[in-house]
Amino acid sequence: MNDDSSLRTLLVGIDAACDRILEPLFDDGELPTLESIYREGTNGPLESQIPPWTASAWPSLYTGMNPGKHGVYGFLNFDGYDWDVVNATDVHERTLWELLDRHGITSAVVNVPVTHPPREFDGALIPGYTAPEDPDCHPAGLLEEVRAAIGEYRVYPDEDAADLGQAYTDCVRMRGEAFRYLAAEYEPEFGFVEFQATDSIFHERPDDDDAIRSIYREVDRQLGEILEATEPANVIVASDHGMGPYDGLEFRVNDYLREEGFVTTASGGQGMPNWATVRDGNLKEGDDTTRHEAGVAERAMATAAGFGLTSQRIGAVLERLGLDEFVAAYAPTGVVNAGATQVDFSESTAYVRSRIELGVRINLEGREPDGVVPPDAYEEVRTQLIDALRSVRTPDGEPVFEAVRPREEYFHGPESEDAVDIVTVPADFEHFLSATLRDEQFGPPSEPWNHKLEGTVAARGDEIDPTAGVGDAHLFDIAPTVLSTFGIPFDERMDGTPLPCVDAAGTEKYPRFDGARSVETADDDVEKRLADLGYLE
After folding, report:
1. pLDDT in tens, 432-468
2. Domains of the chain listed by start with CATH number
3. Cβ atoms of 356 and 433 closer than 8 Å
4. What is the pTM of this model?
């Protein structure tokens, strides 16, 4: 280590990394830099949170707190039936770099999800996932400065590229080049660089081993060049969740709730909006299928649905004919939704709003715009739902869920009222939960690979004792661990604690960041990207 280096601790985020992915690459000698950190330091599994998805998990990692405190539960922020993609103004706790700033520590942050628009701190930040392609950076004008120095810089891969794997690899390279530029220009004491492509490739091409390996090799190459250029005293590698095959079934929870009498449906465009009506660019902030002006095709489809010819039934026929994927690629989303069977809010007791939320919402009076469940019946209804969901079995007789529990067992804090009322955790994350209505409760998973609960963590450096290990590491432990490498107390309200491999500096009471949501994402390209990756149904 170079004692003159200003970079004290480098945090490397590798989205979806886990032993299942890393071990074969280590065995084949593909990742020498990353493997050296694992071999020379300490490492182990890193348990993610519920729900284990990018937009919620990264804020949990960099605040050290559960979503009930920081406020981000998924990719969408809801206001009644209106929605927007989440952004940094939805994060109601102080970030790791903001806490360091309070102690006079400077930071450089590159590509971390849900950091746009950036908030003031001493250092530099280029936002990551959920930001627009040309995001505001901190300080102002930084993106233009970086592009002038390194050439092209993209938040998302070039969708027009002939080789998607190469487009993702190029994004990885840009992260490393941008971070090295910021490290040289700003001389930060803390650095945080996140690589997203390691997750996205599995959503799009889970069987493309060449692309996956190419992306990981580039991560390793960029990490090696960062370490050589900055010589950090400490390096911590962490993922937000794992990744693996879904060998079970797709369980359509709203179809089940309909059969059990909790969900009532409507057709012809009347009912729960499809939150992912973004592919055609016909849905803007606050609009849904019941609010935009329907075209001739949509009106015709809605009329047909009123007579029972719904999109679901047409889709079933197309699926049997092997034409479903072709038609889905070209049919206007508004037409499909106009003919879809949807949850009828005004007549339903409970429903799944978004599969990413990993749970069921009760249609509560006074909270939901069309709430029907009186507050004094809330606990009775919730108990009925929990009992019903716990009883669900696959056609082979296996439990669909490993846990069906009240939300307060997972979420606590001032933002917990925004959580689902009942948390549903699929067994071993082998089953794909869906909010769509397909007239059948079970089917094949929409995505053959998706998120798993077990990620990974590794640490090496001057403040790291490899003999102490990482213990039962949890996602919430990363922020207090980073603070401990600086000898800085962590927030007493954090849900995590420093890993055993570092010396904890005690706790301190920090004021909560509680700024109001002030910026709308309202970016069609971001919404389309999330839909394409399967995060929005």
Report:
1. 999 989 889 999 998 899 999 999 999 999 999 999 9
2. 9-246+449-533 (3.40.720.10), 247-271+341-446 (no CATH), 275-282+298-339 (no CATH)
3. no
4. 0.87
